[in-house]
Hints:
The protein has about 100 residues and is α+β, with helices and mostly antiparallel strands.
Amino acid sequence: MTGITVWTKPDCTQCTGTFKFFETQGISKAALTVKDLTHPDNAAQLQNFKERGLMQAPIVQTPQETWSGFNPDKIKTAATQMRTSTPSPAMSMTGPGLR
């Protein structure tokens, strides 16, 4: 898995808080993969989470770990890891006056 996946449910205050906190850390919601825990296609994944003791939304999966609920410390760590693992665009060394 690459990036961060946030499993949500409708009208979830902790989910909204998680997205807002990611934004304060420089990670937009658009940069995250967002999936709905209540969608019928995700029933098996929801059951898997429950079996692992992950009982509240959101459930956040990163390449390093998975947790449930709003957790600012883990969000900070995940955002830092995401920023440092995303390569910066290459700087062009060509143009007027450069050889």
